[in-house]
Design a protein that fits this description.
418 residues; alpha/beta; TIM Barrel; two-stranded antiparallel sheet; 49% helix; globular
Length: 418
């Protein structure tokens, strides 16, 4: 994976005419601060471990607004006509506190659609500008990236958009709306011409799992369209119109594991699958993580959840700040502490099955029953009382366990022995 990252950067430097600000941020924040020196985070982690028992979170994810100009089928954000937004002051404070308290300089912005965010006369790009010591990655549908937006990203330098696709035109337009694929292609061209590095975010479902990782599609994105990074999100049954039927089947998930590593090793393409690449990051990263650090998810109402795909919150950042507390109060909450303990006590025996909500849903239900966190929306409430949902998740986990265990034994536990 590290070699794939290096090769991706090499390709980018060869074909991009990077803006001066982008090149400066890439070298000074990404390469020096996040990968090599890590001086700020090492210092904070040393102090933090003495008090909290773990190193600091390595990044944070914020969805500052529910606002979105699309209504994609099954979107976890569950965007509706009622726009809910986290105030700019709070979003900015989260980013700055994460850097000051934890040494966390990598911030992921999700949505809704981040470029639709408006608060106190500010936009997401104002947040990026106000925090030049942090590096931002923004998951975006790409349809709001016009020439002006691309130009401003180039002048800022410390943001990389990851543009969402479902595959080729037919699959993308089927889920996201007619004409979206063409809009995304135009946005990619604008970013490339402006000298802005960008990546892709690919949602894998039972209907497109083979297509999005096909040799032709990946070659198109990384060679012809100049994407630098790729993220695979396997569909999770939460959010609007959630359904277990859209999850990649256990067989498809196993095939994705094989194909993704072929692309990484042979093609030197940096493409990360949060479910199939648990071996890269030592398992689950939710609730602040454990050995290698992890993250928290802050959503538009201020709710803080263990991760983007676990929609249950024991605490609200608005309440935390209103009473004068800070992000460490969130970190120390027993709900999150129990998840970190679960991560470190051997419960993730097979790192090909790292996901708390999908691979270990029974454990998640036990944590929810014990700590009674709030469901962040009606859909999350429904899953708690839906026996068919729980049974289906448990059945999926067992079926994938039967496929993944021999792989774990052969390729990870006993590789090179005898």
């Amino acid at each position: 994976m590290s070699l794939a990252i290096l090769e991706s950067l090499k390709r980018a430097l060869n074909v991009y005419h990077l803006s001066e600000a982008t090149l400066d941020s890439l070298m000074n924040i990404v390469v020096k601060d996040l990968f090599l020196n890590q001086e700020l985070r090492r210092q904070r982690s040393k102090e933090f471990r003495e008090t909290h028992g773990y190193i600091t979170p390595s990044f944070i994810v914020i969805s500052p607004s529910k606002a979105c100009n699309l209504r994609c089928t099954g979107c976890y954000a569950d965007s509706t006509e009622k726009v809910q937004t986290l105030s700019w002051d709070i979003v900015n404070k989260i980013v700055q506190d994460a850097r000051h308290l934890w040494g966390t300089q990598f911030v992921v912005i999700s949505g809704g659609e981040p470029l639709a965010y408006r608060s106190q006369g500010k936009t997401i790009l104002d947040l990026v500008e106000n925090n030049p010591e942090s590096f931002f990655m923004m998951y975006t549908n790409g349809t709001l990236i016009d020439d002006e937006v691309a130009s401003r990203m180039a002048s800022l330098g410390n943001i990389v958009p990851a543009i969402s696709l479902e595959g080729w035109r037919e699959k993308t337009d089927e889920r996201r709306g007619e004409g979206v694929f063409n809009q995304v292609m135009a946005a990619m061209d604008r970013l490339f011409q402006a000298g802005v590095l960008y990546g892709v975010s690919l949602t894998a479902t039972s209907q497109n799992a083979e297509e999005i990782l096909s040799d032709d599609f990946i070659e198109f994105l990384f060679e012809e369209k100049h994407a630098v990074i790729g993220w695979i999100f396997q569909y999770m049954p939460i959010g609007r119109s959630f359904t277990l039927a859209l999850m990649p089947t256990p067989e498809q998930r196993h095939a994705m594991w094989q194909q993704s590593w072929k692309l990484i090793r042979k093609n030197r393409v940096f493409i990360a699958d949060f479910w199939n690449h648990g071996t890269v990051v030592d398992g689950c990263l939710s609730a602040g993580g454990h050995n290698n650090g992890g993250y928290f998810y802050f959503e538009w109402n201020g709710n803080v959840t263990p991760c983007v795909f676990v929609p249950y919150s024991p605490v609200n950042v608005n309440d935390i700040y209103s009473r004068g507390d800070d992000l460490n109060t969130i970190y120390d909450h027993p709900f999150f502490a129990d998840i970190r303990s679960w991560q470190t006590n051997g419960s993730q025996k097979n790192l090909l099955m790292p996901c708390l909500i999908r691979d270990h849903n029974k454990a998640l239900r036990e944590f929810i029953q014990k700590h009674e966190p709030d469901a962040i929306d009606r859909n999350a409430e429904m899953t708690l009382v839906d026996k068919a949902y729980a049974d289906g998740m448990d059945r999926y986990a067992q079926e994938y366990h039967d496929l993944a265990d021999p792989v774990w034994e052969e390729h990870y536990l006993h590789a090179g022995r005898g």
